[in-house]
Design a protein that fits this description.
Length: 280
């Protein structure tokens, strides 16, 4: 049987932190956090074997609550810190948790080059299409025409796909879920954490306070219901025409390939250089 919520809470939470948490009622961040904990439980990892790094944003509070080795870093720099940790101690399971603005705006170059290098770590990106914590400004994933605090007459920029960007940049594993599909989310996180190389899991989430309310989408339940209606599996999407996929969210594994892993290559080069020096 899967562990109960009470068992996960007792094992993984820092009980000296103030609860309830700071997230809005109905926020998808809690669903993502639960998915991460279920994945870690199935992998039977010890808490000291895990490092959880975050940047700034609503998702950035997650390391505060969870009793792993954790870093709450600067905006857009979660992957930078995660890279340093992984290079210093490759045995650690390093996870960077980020929002769409954190990962793809100020942190966009770090995401691209982490994927290009194929670093052996996991990036979980919670995509709620807006900067939720800082007042509802538009982000790189805000849909065209949307209303935000910085696009009160409608957003005139086009959103890009985080997952497609990660695939193109060279990540070994890329997957997408939504917070409605919570069971799928923890399965994808589990797959990402055991995949050698850079693994990206994009989880479409709701920000009903800053985004849903302004765009008359409704409350948290309404937004989760819309994710259910919009989602199509990768297998089904392959049979659909491009016009049919407009407005849909493709969920599942989008890329899974075996590529040279940066940390392994770094170790090989280091040992080669050391042997050459010792041979002099």
């Amino acid at each position: 049987m899967p562990p109960s919520i009470q068992a996960l809470t007792h094992k993984y939470f820092r009980h000296n932190k103030r609860f309830p948490h700071v997230w809005c009622p109905g926020c998808g961040n809690g669903i993502v956090m639960g998915a991460l904990l279920r994945a870690i439980t199935r992998l039977d990892l010890e808490k000291d074997e895990i490092v959880l790094a975050s940047g700034i944003g609503c998702s950035g509070r997650m390391p505060t609550y969870l009793d792993f080795n954790t870093l709450h870093t600067t905006h857009g720099r979660a992957l930078t810190f995660a890279t340093g940790i992984k290079l210093a101690n490759p045995a650690l399971n390093v996870v960077a948790i980020m929002g769409d603005g954190d990962a793809t705006a100020i942190g966009g170059n770090h995401l691209i080059h982490a994927a290009r290098r194929n670093l052996n770590l996991t990036a979980i990106i919670i995509n709620n299409s807006i900067y939720g914590m800082t007042g509802g400004q538009y982000s790189p994933t805000t849909p065209f025409g949307s209303t935000t605090t910085t696009s009160v007459y409608g957003h005139i920029e086009h959103a890009f796909s985080i997952s497609e960007l990660a695939v193109t940049a060279g990540a070994a594993f890329v997957a997408r879920s939504t917070v409605y599909h919570a069971a799928l989310a923890d399965q994808l996180i589990e797959q990402a954490m055991i995949k050698p190389g850079f693994a990206v899991v994009e989880i479409i989430s709701n920000c009903h306070v800053q985004y849903g309310r302004r765009n008359k989408i409704g409350n948290a339940i309404d937004m989760l219901t819309s994710f259910k209606e919009q989602a199509v599996t990768v297998k089904k999407a392959a049979t659909m025409e491009e016009e049919e996929l407009q407005g849909k969210i493709t969920i599942g594994v989008l890329a899974d390939r075996d590529l040279p892993v940066s940390t392994d290559e770094y170790k090989r080069i280091r040992e080669q250089a050391r042997s050459k020096q010792e041979g002099k």
